[in-house]
Amino acid sequence: MTFDSPGRDTEPDAAPDAEIPGDTGHDEAQLAEEDQRARPGDEAVGVRRGMFGVRGTGDTSGYGRLVRTVSLPGGTEPPYGGYFDELVAALAEALPGNAFTEAVERIVVFRGELTLHVRREHLPRVAQALRDEPALRFELCLGVSGVHYPDDSGRELHAVYPLLSITHNRRVRLEVSAPDADPHIPSLYSVYPTTDWHERETYDFFGILFDGHPSLTRITMPDDWRGHPQRKDYPLGGIPVEYKGARIPPPDQRRAYS
């Protein structure tokens, strides 16, 4: 069996300027103003058209008229509420001097959850402090999730780590960003060995390179697969499939009978 995956530079067969049903022809700024879903203080990083941002015949979702501003929650000022203030104070005490302000670039409380946006070079130190400090004791990393914001210039790739303190029954989330041109983030394998397979999966689907990982190889896609399928710029369809000797055309090239 062969895997004829498109590379990241491959575009769907449809012309990039093909008309989208419901496309009003407004520019990006006007579309952003029309979408009122963002909260005050949120950071808009782009405008999404359709369900997957696909132009032409590739979007078969039925959401061709959907227009939505892609925004990220803005920073939150203290007090944060609940145990969040105590958690942040304990972490600041565990990172003496200017280490805390150098490591944590933003604190976000959104929908009752606390997220610490950490600069990537400081990630292992922050994670170890969260694990080892008696007042924190986040013993368990629940996984690694990748996110791709192609319009978030200079930080297109994000890695998200949800942590759980079994001792104190608390949760916190670490989020780290990296530019697409330099997709390197330090591995947390030395702090949380359970991130082994999670970081491999995030690398497989998003292309984030976790420096220091003991064996950063694909875990789901075949080794010779080109590209990273969960990136927003990865083509939809366009991948022929071989099944029991028959070659099935990709979804956007199959005959329609309706």
TrEMBL record:
Keywords: Cell membrane, Membrane, NAD, Quinone, Translocase, Transport. Belongs to the complex I 30 kDa subunit family. GO terms for cellular component: plasma membrane. Its main location: membrane. One of its GO terms (molecular function) is quinone binding. It comes from the Bacteria. Coiled coil: none annotated. It is found in: Cell membrane. NDH-1 shuttles electrons from NADH, via FMN and iron-sulfur (Fe-S) centers, to quinones in the respiratory chain. The immediate electron acceptor for the enzyme in this species is believed to be a menaquinone. Couples the redox reaction to proton translocation (for every two electrons transferred, four hydrogen ions are translocated across the cytoplasmic membrane), and thus conserves the redox energy in a proton gradient. The lineage of its organism: Bacteria, Bacillati, Actinomycetota, Actinomycetes, Mycobacteriales. HAMAP family: NDH1_NuoC (MF_01357). It catalyses: a quinone + NADH + 5 H(+)(in) = a quinol + NAD(+) + 4 H(+)(out). NDH-1 is composed of 14 different subunits. Subunits NuoB, C, D, E, F, and G constitute the peripheral sector of the complex. Signal peptide: none annotated. Residues 116-238 form the NADH:ubiquinone oxidoreductase 30kDa subunit domain. Its EC number is 7.1.1.-. Pfam families: Complex1_30kDa. InterPro entries: NADH_DH_suC, NADH_quin_OxRdtase_su_C/D-like, NADH_UbQ_OxRdtase_30kDa_su. It is a peripheral membrane protein. This is NADH-quinone oxidoreductase subunit C. Residues 1-43, 239-258 are annotated as: Disordered. NCBIfam families: NuoC_fam (TIGR01961), PRK07785.1 (NF005856). Residues 1-11, 24-43 have a biased composition (Basic and acidic residues).
